[in-house]
Q: What sequence folds into this?
């Protein structure tokens, strides 16, 4: 075997990320919308579908979607807030809008395997005075809606805790 072939065999190459948090991202100017969809089970489902159809028909992108027994909640970027309110107002259903939020996304290759991560994140928010309004997760991330006023401090605290470089923001 040639020397270069032996060298190639001896190298370990990995295509997977190391376990642990590898990125924290901040999205500013987010609003959280709560739309009341009470009624019988069938009525609630029709109302939820109507909300989604109205938003889709108006080309309004939504995220952080949660379905509850009597409400549907979601987030929109601030630039879409006026269009969202204008599109949903004709439905005549009660709606609550919370502005001035930020979405913090914490990414890891296998987030659900990291024990205690949500406690660590919540403690970081508490330490900088950032109120937590909602949490969502996937197999690779945890997303948190917090007040935008403390979002920069929260981002820096998370980067410190998870030992991330400044360019990962």
A:
């Amino acid at each position: 075997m040639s020397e270069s072939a032996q060298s190639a065999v001896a190298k370990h190459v990995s295509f997977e990320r190391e376990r642990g948090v590898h990125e924290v991202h901040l999205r500013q100017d987010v609003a959280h919308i709560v739309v009341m969809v009470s009624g019988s089970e069938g009525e609630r489902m029709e109302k939820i579908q109507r909300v989604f159809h109205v938003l889709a028909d108006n080309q309004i992108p939504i995220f952080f979607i949660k379905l509850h027994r009597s409400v549907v909640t979601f987030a929109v970027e601030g630039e879409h807030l006026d269009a969202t309110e204008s599109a949903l107002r004709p439905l005549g259903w009660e709606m609550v809008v919370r502005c001035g939020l930020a979405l913090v996304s914490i990414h890891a290759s296998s987030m659900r395997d990291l024990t205690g991560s949500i406690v660590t994140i919540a403690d970081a928010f508490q330490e900088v005075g950032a109120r937590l309004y909602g949490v969502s997760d996937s197999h690779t991330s945890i997303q948190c809606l917090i007040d935008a006023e403390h979002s920069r401090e929260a981002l820096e605290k998370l980067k410190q805790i998870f030992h991330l470089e400044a360019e990962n923001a």
Observations:
- The longest strand covers residues 21-36.
- The mean pLDDT is 88.
- The beta strands are 21-36, 63-67, 71-77, 95-108, 132-137, 141-147.
